[in-house]
Amino acid sequence: MTMHILPHTSGHASALRLADILGPLSHALDLTEGQAPGHCIRCCHIGTRIGEMMGLNDAEMDDLYYTLLLKDLGCSSNAARICELYLADDLSFKRDFKSIDGSLSAALRFVFAKTGLESGLTERIGAIINILRNGGEIVDDLIETRCHRGADIAARMRFSTAVQDGVRCLDEHWDGGGRPAGLAGEAIPLNARIALLSQVVDIFHSSGGRAAALLEVQRRAGSWFDPDLVSTFTRLAADPGFWADLTSPFLQSLVLSQPSGHRLAVVDAGYLDDIAQAFADVIDAKSNFTADHSRRVTFYADIIAEQMGHDPAGRRWLRRGALLHDLGKLGISNQILDKAGKLDSSEWTAIRQHPDTGADILSNIAVFGDIAPLARDHHERLDGKGYPSGCDGDSLPLSTRIVTVADVFDALSAKRPYRAAMPIAEVFTILDRDRSTAFDPDCIDALRSGLDRMARTAN
User: b/e for 251-275, b at 16 or more Cβ within 10 A?
Assistant: First the structure.
């Protein structure tokens, strides 16, 4: 068997365009909301054009730019709760809810139409009654969780207070009827006001065209939206070039080449680590059963790599790959991820697609492109019976073998919706049973030795 050393990456600071990293990564956030690919990119185009018309200075435009790209950082955190409360697919629920007209009557009709469609009658009625009785409290909790978590992640990614506040206040309304704090008027950060308007424009334009988008924005002037912003957007909407750019296949390049995206930032190895960890938090927030999964897989993978004698640079690269290996799971409904029973064929198809989904996103990011194969292949087996491609052992590098063992070890030793957590000894029995068929025996032995060494040190 041919073994491969782990790749090396430079730890030196380099001038990179931060937008070239976060622009493609924003597609992962689109997945969490069930939106068509490029939603955050389109919102960034809409919102920055509004900011330009308002005459914002460079610093204000930079904050607006990243607020728009990262507005949905916290959205994965309410997915499981939506499935639990509404007995519905979180992705389609969130996508369709954003397309209603925003009135209370429309919201009630939506709840009746969407709640528990695949559940028994008694269960569905119970869920609807619970929502009607506690609807305000439920929505407050969902939005507060999303907004505060998103702001916290933005802070961990070293963004300014203005960006953090823009993400936190995304769902505030001009008339004070929004959430999470019920802010009104100019107390709502300008970034948040522009981001919410941009979101509504993109959603209604995508579903009904430019006239529908303009009508919806004007209809909400003074309630959801700052009337002055609506006036600015109305002038912008009169420019045919704005709409042509919004539907251009080259829109992402256009957005990333904007002055705010074009400015270079010092993105050193530590900053790349922070970005990987932040998006791992987004991934792990998707399900209560996988909370901290990416971080634990990273911990176990690092133990294996250290035990096998790999140097710090290679281990650092591997930790980033382990943190982002499940990026594609953001596109899977929690009805599947948290299902207690056996998955049907269509659900298995969705599960088997997530490695390709994550790899596709990472492959479009120069600094993360070399970990895309790891995301794609972490469910492959040495005997070729894994997914999504059925690769055999000769084509699987050591990095993938390490993450595969770490991933399975954590999955078996943690609680899942369909079973309790397994004792460590039982986990290793299962891994050993598939030595050299599914899993690399050297990686299994390294993990066992590393955990034993840690146990001896602790005692």
Answer: bbeebbebebbeeeeebebebbeeb
| pLDDT confidence bin for 12, thresholds 50/70/90 | very low
Is residue 218 domain-shared with residue 149, that is, in the same domain? yes
Collect all residues with Cβ–Cβ distance below 8 Å to 399 and sequence separation of at least 6.
4, 6, 7, 317, 318, 321, 374
Q: Which of 94, 329, 342, 415 is catalytic?
A: 329
Decide if 124 is inside a domain. Answer: no
- Picking from 1, 281, 300, 17, the residue whose alpha carbon sits closest to that of residue 153 is 281
Q: Are residues 288 and 381 in the same domain?
A: yes
Query: Does residue 196 share a domain with residue 167?
Result: yes
Q: In this structure, are residues 76 and 286 in contact, taking their beta carbons and an 8 Å threshold? A: yes
Q: Token digits for 311?
A: 């140097």
Q: Residues 54, 232: contact at Cβ < 8 Å?
A: yes
- State how far the Cα of 68 lies from the Cα of 180, in Å rounded to an integer: 18
Closest CA to 380 of 357, 356, 362: 356
> How do residues 259-294 score in pLDDT, each as one tens digit?
998 776 778 899 999 999 999 999 999 988 888 999
Domain-embedded: residue 127:
no
Encoded tokens for 266 = 């010092």
Do 396 and 343 lie in one domain? The reply is yes
State the DSSP H helix or E strand holding residue 15, giving kind and residue range, or none if neither: strand 15-16
In the residue annotation, 286 being an active-site residue is answered as no
Is residue 190 domain-shared with residue 277, that is, in the same domain? Answer: no
Residues in a beta bridge with 392: 383
One-letter-per-residue 3-state SS of 417-452: CCECCCCHHHHHHHHHHCECCCECHHHHHHHHHHHH
Q: pLDDT per residue over 420-446, tens digit each?
A: 889 999 999 999 999 999 999 999 999
Distance in angstroms (rounded) separating the CA atoms of residues 94 and 82 = 9
Return the bridge partners of 416, or none.
419
* Cα gap 178→185, rounded to integer Å: 11
What is the rounded distance in angstroms from the CA atom of residue 304 to the CA atom of residue 450?
7
Number of domain units in the chain? 2
Whole-prediction pTM value?
A: 0.91
CATH number at 45 reads 1.10.3210.10
